[in-house]
Amino acid sequence: MFEAWHTGVRRALLLGGMLLLAPLLAQAGPLPRADAEFPAPDMDKIALGRLLFYDPILSGSRTVSCASCHNPRFGTSDGVSLGLGDGGLGLGPARHPDPKNLPERRIARNAPALFNLGAKEFASLFDDGRLEADPARKYGIRTPLGDDMAAGFDSILSAQAMFPVLAGDEMAGHYNESDVAKAAREGRFTGSGGVWDILARRVAHVPAYRRRFDRVLGADRRIRFSDIANMIAAFVTYEWRADNSPFDIYLRRGTPMRPAAMRGMRLFYGKAGCDRCHSGQFQSDQRFHAIAMPQIGPGKAARFQDFVRDTGRMRVTGRAGDAYRFRTPSLRNIADTAPYGHDGAYATLAGVLRHHLDPLKSLREYDRTQAVLPLLPGARDFVVLNDPAEMAAIAAANELPALDLSPPAQADIIAFLHALGDPRARKGRLGVPKTVPSGLPVDQ
User: Fold this and answer.
1) Please, what sign has the CA dihedral across residues 76, 79, 83, 86?
2) Phi then psi for 320, rounded to 5 degrees?
3) Going by C-beta distance under 8 Å and a sequence separation of 6 or more, which residues neighbour residue 205?
4) 318 in helix, strand or coil?
5) Crossing angle for the helix pair 407-418 and 259-268, nearest 10 degrees?
6) Is the pLDDT score of 10 beyond 70?
7) 3-state secondary structure of 276
8) Which CATH architecture has domain 43-241?
9) Where are the domains of the chain?
10) Calpha distance 416→246 (Å, rounded)
């Protein structure tokens, strides 16, 4: 009897709340469905991937792990605009150069958050989309390294792991400082003595890892780098699945969010038109757009190229029309993942929202103190901002029109963005291990 009464009261309260909110929702655009698909979890793989994710054994110098740049303390990013990989000490904004092993340069792009990357909705990864799901390819993955480099990976998320370990600035290390660094600089990625072979052998030689891989792969089967990557992807998919935010609960049950978030949702899917790019359950159309984001840092270029620009998608397609286009980021747990932009140009949600409202004005008047940049001797951080021709090229590519939104309306949109946070995913389901099988230190 009490249970039936309680259910009736809940329904009445919910209906009353929805009636009060009806005028608010009437003008909102269509909302996404909360029906994202994730692979079924395999806890043996996930537990193994967790250890590998936090273990520095996968870097050339054995000092950098995946978690060095993707840490739950900083929303699975690193809390800075452009991070320090090999040659850095510490975590997040406190990370600094090792005076005995100075980084050669900053990492060229902001460390992306990891929330929901295992969902089927994510068909491409990296800001320029250089890694894409492609059923027409032999292994279902398109990568700039060719089909042979895609063999053995379960998904684009697992294939993503191939890139940081090959990059000197991130995990491979300085010239000749280790066997991994030397192999990477010589372009020896696969095969005997290549980067992947060296790392796989390192892991296989640790008895605790060998035992865990035996449970997953079968006894005594050779461990390949793709196996390591598949375990890490399984962990990331499980640990940072973020689909139970107040917004998701509203989509599934009709339970209203806070009034400011409800108003912000109406603007997001209405007048502000944010959903033209930030569509779908995770607020990303998986496409590429030029929005005149200020360019800071070393830029994305090959080692032999002496420039600091980052032309985004054009580096992948070669098409001039793709210049300065970058993939629409997901907005899940966005309040925890500052700074924002492909290069972390904006330190706050308010700052990056204002940029979206008038990109060209924001580009011209960019406040460089927004950048969160660890001190690095010799860094060329603002070359593009000081170059009128480069600034004009970024401005000319912009496709986002200016929009007038009052400060209260902006505050409501930010309230909605906060409502996209999933508290459980923020912390992670399993957390940071205190130790890893290699015995190397784990950053807590």
Assistant:
1) negative
2) -60, -30
3) none
4) coil
5) 100
6) no
7) helix
8) Orthogonal Bundle (1.10)
9) 43-241, 246-424
10) 9
